[in-house]
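Blinded run. Sample ID left blank on purpose so nobody reads anything into the name before looking at the predicted structure. Input follows.
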Amino acid sequence: MVLAARLRGAAAIAVAAFAVAGCGDGEGEAIPGAVGGVPGGGTLSYALAGQARELDPLLATSRPELLVTRQVHEPLVASLVGPFGDVRRSRGLAIAWRPTRDREIWSFRLRQGIRFQDGSPLNATAVLANAERWRTLDAGRELLPELVAADAPRPDLVRFFLSSAVSDFPQRLASPRLGIVSPAALRPRSGASARLAAGRRSGTGPFEFRESTAGGPIVLAGNTEYWGTRLDLGPALNELEFEIVPSARERLDLLEAGAVQVADELGSVPIERLRANPLVTSERGPGGAVLGLERSVRGIDSATAIEPLSNVWLTVVGTE
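Blinded prediction complete.
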């Protein structure tokens, strides 16, 4: 009944949007970054295939969980782009790294001036608490089995000591499961076998938790103190709303009706149905993963990557 009501309400919006898209100069699209003529902003509604029950990045395993927590928690290593088609790339929390010749010690220099959403500083001490958590929890040892210790020669420098040579250590630290969390949200704060006790404002990412209820949507609001904003890294969206819709066909129904702008994991529905609708498109990734997109969405390039949505923006719905 809830789905049917949403579809009825969205149908009128979709018809109106189609009528607007048919007017104008024939290009079928407004200025990039505009939502109803206003640059940036807006709410992106995203239909997920399953619940995001675990919002601790280290313990998150499903695609919905990883997608949601990656918006809030950033790993040390990232390659970030801004919204509105910006192709420049910026590094994330770590701005430089280098190994010893034997690849058993890796040093990472941290970006300065970053704070967690709870106001505490992102510094070497915070990273050491996370490293201790990775080293002492099974989930962390699974990802970084060679990690034996870490230290901080200065506040903006962290060294990781490994039991054997690891040539791809920075790439491993880019995992969304290794998102850095505020020590203030850990119990104990030292990080030793620590669990995320208070995850509401525990990240440094472009979005922060606004609300979530059992079985209901998860709402994330743009982080007004996000460090990337001063570097034009977004977020261009005011809000992310993740809806839990287990049926792939129902996710596609919502997408076609305009009730959501993104429908995840559509591999089990006929691709011809997506192609027949001029207001939607799709991205196909390895393994047959299919992401359905309203054509108003820009900045999502892959159906399989778990990336921050701060580079995503919305335009007036149009045909191409």
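Unblinding after everyone has recorded impressions. The two ends are 34 Å apart (CA to CA).
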